[in-house]
Amino acid sequence: AVLRTANIRFNKNYELLMEVAEELKTDRRFKFLCAGDIIAGAHAEEQRYAGELRHRLVSANPALGLQLLGHRNDIQKILVAADVSICTSRLEGFPNAILEAAYAGLPVLTTPVSGVDELVVEDQTGWVIPDNRPDEFAKRLRFLADDTELRLRMGLDAQARTRELYGSHAL
């Protein structure tokens, strides 16, 4: 499974995730788990946008293999069930979802947001993929699906790097 952990909001760019899922919809190896929901207390425009986007995500589920998990307090269990983590954000302060995924031993595919240069080592722990390149995300996901040994090695390297940088108390 491909895991996306992020609240449903503009900066998280779920539209790009849907484009990636569209690229892979004929390949039944891919299921996308989306952990996160609409932020309570967000301003009205953000709430409206998130509500519309959530509706699109739910509607796309059968065709694209998207599964909305909503807000979760058991993210560690979901990380264990995933094979790879994906971050499609337009903007991040520090990408905690990437830190958590790497710490759990998942390779990471991400857009070039703040903090990824520290967390993602190209071709070792994952890949930084240019914005608006769903085809490149899909290509890399297929690559990892085809090469289990590489996927596992990248996950272990991500975990080792994260623990080296942040210690065992990172999460």
Class by SSE composition: alpha/beta
The multimeric state of the shown protein is single chain
Number of helices: 7
Report low-confidence residues grouped into runs of 5 or more. Answer: none
- Helix amount: 40-55%
Gyration radius (Cα, Å) is 15 Å
Distance separating the two termini: 22 Å
pLDDT averaged over residues:
91
Order the strands across the largest sheet as they lie in space.
3-2-1-4-5-6
User: How many beta strands in the DSSP annotation?
Assistant: 6
Sum up the overall morphology in one term: globular
| Element pattern in H and E | EHEHEHEHEHEHH
Strand content: 5-15%
Summarize the structure in words.
This protein is an alpha/beta fold and 171 residues long. It is built from 7 helices and 6 strands, in the order βαβαβαβαβαβαα. It has a 6-stranded parallel beta sheet with strand order 3-2-1-4-5-6, sandwiched between helices. It is globular, with a radius of gyration of 15 Å. The mean pLDDT is 91.
Summarize it:
The protein is of the alpha/beta class and 171 residues long.
Notable characteristics:
six-stranded parallel beta sheet, 13% strand, single chain, 7 helices, globular, 171 residues
List the helices and strands and how they pair.
Elements: E1 2-5, H1 14-23, E2 32-35, H2 44-64, E3 66-70, H3 75-81, E4 84-87, H4 96-103, E5 108-110, H5 116-119, E6 126-128, H6 134-146, H7 148-166
Helix pairs in contact: 1-2, 1-6, 4-7
